[in-house]
Design goal:
- The protein has a single domain, classed as Beta Barrel (Lipocalin), CATH 2.40.128.280.
- The longest helix has 30 residues.
- The protein has 1 helix and 8 strands; from the N terminus they run H-E-E-E-E-E-E-E-E.
- It has an 8-stranded antiparallel beta barrel with strand order 1-2-3-4-5-6-7-8.
- By secondary structure, it is an alpha+beta fold.
């Protein structure tokens, strides 16, 4: 009886761990791609699978750096020491980046 309970507990722990890892992987993959602001200066963010990110304003500046997902809805971008953390949400082909002041910028998935 004790062995069965231990086995059940071990299987439950493994299942929870696998589920959390697959959810994190799914979140990591969903942000990967090229995103263009659909108004204003048409800023472009591009998140790569290798953890690199670029932020480009057409006809203007371009910054390159690395990104990490702080959790399921926060992305941290480090542009050579300039660190910016955004809350983000994705719905279909729209990415919302919300800065620390609560300002939301909307981006569409670009090809």
């Amino acid at each position: 009886m004790k062995t069965s309970l231990k086995n059940l507990l071990a299987l439950t722990t493994v299942a929870v761990f696998v589920a959390s890892c697959s959810q994190k992987k799914s979140t990591e993959n969903i942000i990967v791609g090229k995103w263009q602001m659909n108004y204003g200066n048409k800023e472009i963010y591009q998140f790569q699978k290798d953890g690199t990110v670029t932020d480009e304003v057409p006809e203007g500046a371009k910054m390159a750096g690395k990104y990490t997902l702080a959790d399921d809805d926060h992305v941290k971008c480090d542009f050579d020491g300039l660190v910016v953390t955004f809350r983000f949400s994705i719905s279909g082909n729209e990415l919302n980046l919300i800065d620390s002041d609560g300002k939301t910028n909307k981006y569409n998935r670009a090809n």
